[in-house]
Amino acid sequence: MAKSRYLSGARIAPAPITGDMGAADLIDTAFLAYNGGRLREGCRLFTERMLDDDVTIGMTLTGALTPAGLGMSALIPLIEAGFVDWIISTGANLYHDAHFGLGLEMRQGNPHVSDVSLREEEVVRIYDIFFDYSVLLDTDAFFRRIIREDEFQRSMSTAEFHWLAGKYIAERQKALGQRGKSLLSTCYEYDVPVYTSSPGDSSIGMNVAAGALQGLKLQYDVNADVNETASIVLDGKRRGGKSAIIIFGGGSPKNFALQTEPQIQEVLGIEEKGHDYFLQFTDARPDTGGLSGATPAEAVSWGKVDPDRLPDAVVCYTDSTISLPLLTAYALSRHAPREPKRLFRRRDEMLQRLKDEYAASSRNEAAQERARENHDVTLERSR
User: Fold this and answer.
1) Can you tell me the distance from the alpha carbon of 67 to that of 351, in angstroms, rounded to the nearest whole number?
2) Rg (Cα) of the chain, in Å, rounded?
3) Contact status, residue 216 vs residue 99, Cβ threshold 8 Å
């Protein structure tokens, strides 16, 4: 009797787990089903396909990941290995990242302690992470000081702002005799563009807003953010490569990364098909609206994901504080470092490519009007 094609998968017969087994071997051996199986699939998708040299990898970050030390333990090693090319993060993650770069302390705590008692002792709590209230004040003072510098007195994309902030944090780390503590300073060092989809929604944005009341000229250019992120994706495709998106959590950074393809196709009218690789770690659900428009299949209908690449899409329903360290350990164990793409240096070049293709698009009303005017002038002269 012929065996069903549905029984072609590997047999579930894992070897016993041993005490000397590494993280990557553990994932390959014991993560065989349910969300363990999806995490294994995600690790393999990232390591075996996304990390090809011709793939441009964008990562989104939500949730309080940097306060938990995941910037130092996972994100910085990924960047140093050339495994992340551009980032979209909540402003809060970048603000709390700065604490470590400035030599300020975060402590492990107990989530069941009375918050009234903590308030009385000026201790701030992020679930089971504790820190002194002065950490906030000192970090605010740092950002208020640097945004008074002349190079900040203009409109700029959030990638420009974070690159400059990373430079000052790197200088502070050097003065402290430390390195590798801050995601922002590492992104500055490796020229990884870091965007914030909601720049006013963090303590960094609050301090920038306070600076505006003092007459400072710094303004976030959100239009530049939209166009620059779209240009990164388009450039990667036009150079003969592929685009990959890794999503930790959800929220605004998730959509901001995925909307790059609708911006290219729907709004700018440029021929494109969607992201090639899609990997998401989330604890949200599509039926409650938490993943609306962002499961791989649903994202196809928006043009966010190439429908021909759906087998190269994985969603793992798990906490990012679990998946991020495991993915990092797996990738570093299974793949050699890549040459950093240093996309921040190429922002003008990539944006020009986007402008050139938009100029030829039927959706560019201004360009089409200029073409008609030039045509009418040419006709008039020929008479």
Assistant:
1) 33
2) 23
3) no
- Can you read off the two tokens belonging to residue 293? 């428009």
Residue boundaries of the structural domains of the chain = 39-241+322-377
CATH superfamily of 39-241+322-377: Deoxyhypusine synthase (3.40.910.10)
Q: Count H helices, E strands: the chain?
A: 17, 11
- What is the spatial distance between Cα 343 and Cα 239, in angstroms, rounded to a whole number? 13
Sequence-separated (6 or more) residues with CB below 8 Å from residue 9 = none
Picking from 344, 76, 114, the residue whose alpha carbon sits closest to that of residue 231 is 344
The answer to whether residue 217 is catalytic is: no
- What is the C-alpha separation between 151 and 170, in angstroms, rounded? 16
Bridge partners for 282 per DSSP: 317
Beta strands 194-195 and 123-126 are unpaired
Structure tokens at 286: 């599509």
The token pair that represents 95 in the structure block:
């603000």
Query: Among residues 237, 254, 304, 341, which one is catalytic?
Result: 304
| CA 244 and chain centroid, separation | 11
- Buried b / exposed e over 258-273, threshold 16 CB at 10 Å, is bbbbbbbbeebebebb
Taking only the tens of pLDDT, the chain with its 383 residues reads: 678 888 888 899 999 999 999 999 999 999 999 999 999 999 999 999 999 999 999 999 998 999 999 999 999 999 999 999 999 999 999 999 999 999 999 999 999 999 999 999 999 999 999 999 999 999 999 999 999 999 999 999 999 999 999 999 999 999 999 999 999 999 999 999 999 999 999 999 999 999 999 999 999 999 999 999 999 999 999 999 999 999 999 889 999 999 999 999 999 999 998 899 999 999 887 777 776 666 766 766 667 777 776 677 888 999 999 999 999 999 999 999 999 999 999 999 999 999 999 999 988 887 777 766 665 666 666 66
